[in-house]
Amino acid sequence: MRNFLKIILFLSLFFSFSYAQKVYRLKMATTWTSTQSPLFDTALHMAKLAQELSNGELKIRVDASNKHKAPFGVLDMVKGGQYDLAHTASYYWKGKDIATLPFTSMPFGLTAPEQYAWFYEGGGLELMQKIYAKHKILSFPGGNTGVQMGGWFRKEIKSLDDLKGLKMRIPGFAGEIMAKLGVQVTNIAGGELYTSLERHTIDALEWVGPSMDINMGFHKVAPYYYTGWHEPASEMQFIVNKRVFDKLPKHLQIVLTSAMKLAAYDMYIQNYDMNATAWQKMKKEYPNIQVKTFPKKVMDAMKKANKELRAEMSAKSPEIKEVLDSQDAYMKKIREWSKMSDYLYLKDNI
């Protein structure tokens, strides 16, 4: 009898372990520090959604850049297998692969709703997977900042001459455009920006928008706040090691992609509200802030430089030409509706 009970106990333990739910544990790196809201929040939110939607089968550990110490190394870390996925932005990889640049945002390009439509209905997502396939990585939209502001300036920009010799922090493709117009472009670490602006090391800088600018304090030392042109729809990205993704059961692949899609749009909503809230606080506490739009001659020169630089890139890379052509074609289609709907509604009601 005693031996029989032992057998029953053994079998019950065996079957309980056999049918226990398997948990898939992944590691995600971010380009952001743990204090960079809503960017880091979005990575955490996605991990939480994935765990909840999978009923605990999928658990993702999120490491901020102040832990892994390589904010702009996450692509290589995911590619190499040190991390399974990452939350970052595609235009950081233009030095490795210029065709990755347009998946974040392009000057004078698509707005956030237009860009989401391009990704999910206009072939943008398929193009992104094609570009990233050679890196053995899958890439998905990861949250949008909407239109980013054109920057904080110590002095008003009245003409092209005011840009010549101006020292400005503005990275990426927008920086190349500004450099073509005579700006002395520099890239300074985020933690040094306020001091650099305050001490006249730089004359102007571009960051994001009120939601993220307010904590940096730029509005305290540079009263001219220019409207955006260079990043009308800055989309972050989730990147996933393809080998890791392919090993997940099909239902968990669906859970993961669904969690990424939901977290991405949640970031857009959150950041839109944060911008509005932060702007109300800024203008109340610092009524000397002047919102400005670059003069037409300056904007025309920016557009001309943008067109020339895009042509140069396209001539060198058939892949980026394919992406840019796709965005241009989709914008031609959707912009007419954007004008009929949002633009004319706002124009007639402001």
TrEMBL record:
- Where is substrate bound in this sequence? Q148, R169, E206, E231
Residues recorded as binding Na(+), renumbered to this chain, are: W207
Q: Does the keyword Metal-binding apply?
A: yes
Assigned GO CC terms? tripartite ATP-independent periplasmic transporter complex
| One of the GO BP terms on file | transmembrane transport
Output the Gene Ontology terms for molecular function: metal ion binding
Q: Which InterPro entries match?
A: DctP_fam (IPR018389), SBP_TakP-like (IPR026289), TRAP_DctP_sf (IPR038404)
- Keywords from the named record: Metal-binding, Signal
What Pfam families does the database record attribute to this sequence?
DctP (PF03480)
The record's PANTHER family line, in alphabetical order, gives: EXTRACYTOPLASMIC SOLUTE RECEPTOR PROTEIN, PTHR33376
Q: What is this protein called?
A: ABC transporter substrate-binding protein
